[in-house]
Amino acid sequence: MALVYYARPAQALHQIRPGRIVRTNKAQGFALIDLIFVCGIIGLLSSIALPRLLLAKQMAGAASAIGSMRALNSAQLTFALTCGSGFYAPKLTTLGTPPPGTGEAYISPGLGVSDTVIKSNYIIQMVSAPYAGAPATCNGLGPGESGQGFRGAADPATPGNPRFFGTNANNLIYEDTSTLFANMPEIGEPPSGHPLR
């Protein structure tokens, strides 16, 4: 006797023996090869996109570091003109201390909370050599604690980032491929690096 097949869209009827009909469902879902193919395509797209994503993250961090250097320059100039009698603050926390009678510090709380701050994957720091002839300031510094100049820097906190920034009392921001903080003078051009325009 011949086998008889009845086909439906979702099921197939098979007659194995005379008088007995067995229903089998059509295979549905993904095969293992389909899953491997999709994972391979996702891996390929990720390997193409990931370097660009890291580069974009570094560029955003560098833009934030440049903004921090500009804020530092502005805060030091304001401090020297209004509170320091022409002298500069020696630390970030000094710029983060508001003068009496006002609740506004010279820099944002994010920059003035500590003498070394990590912001957007950059280490921000600033110092000023004390000058013996400097008078006391309006926000609590004693005589001889302010400086005639200052130097600040933003160094990347993660390896592989080649952009280092620095600034000083010249009110310019310099860029180099290595740290500028150690060799940056408080006034004048650093021995390496170039000013940003």
Model description:
The model has no long low-confidence stretch (mean pLDDT 86). The chain contains three helices and nine strands; from the N terminus they run E-E-E-H-H-H-E-E-E-E-E-E. The strands form two sheets. A six-stranded antiparallel β-sheet has the order 4-5-6-7-8-9. It has a three-stranded antiparallel β-sheet with strand order 1-2-3, with no helix packed on it. The chain is α+β, with helices and mostly antiparallel strands. The radius of gyration is 33 Å and the shape is elongated. The N and C termini lie far apart (92 Å).
List the helices and strands and how they pair.
Layout: E1 5-7, E2 11-17, E3 20-25, H1 32-82, H2 92-95, H3 109-112, E4 116-119, E5 122-127, E6 151-156, E7 164-168, E8 173-176, E9 194-195
Antiparallel strand pairs: 1-2, 2-3, 4-5, 5-6, 6-7, 7-8, 8-9
User: Biggest sheet: strands side by side, in what order?
Assistant: 4-5-6-7-8-9
Largest sheet: 6 strands, antiparallel
Distance between the termini: 92 Å
Structural class: alpha+beta
Number of strands: 9
Mean pLDDT: 86
Q: Report the order of strands and helices.
A: EEEHHHEEEEEE
**Helical residues, percent:** 25-40%
Number of helices: 3
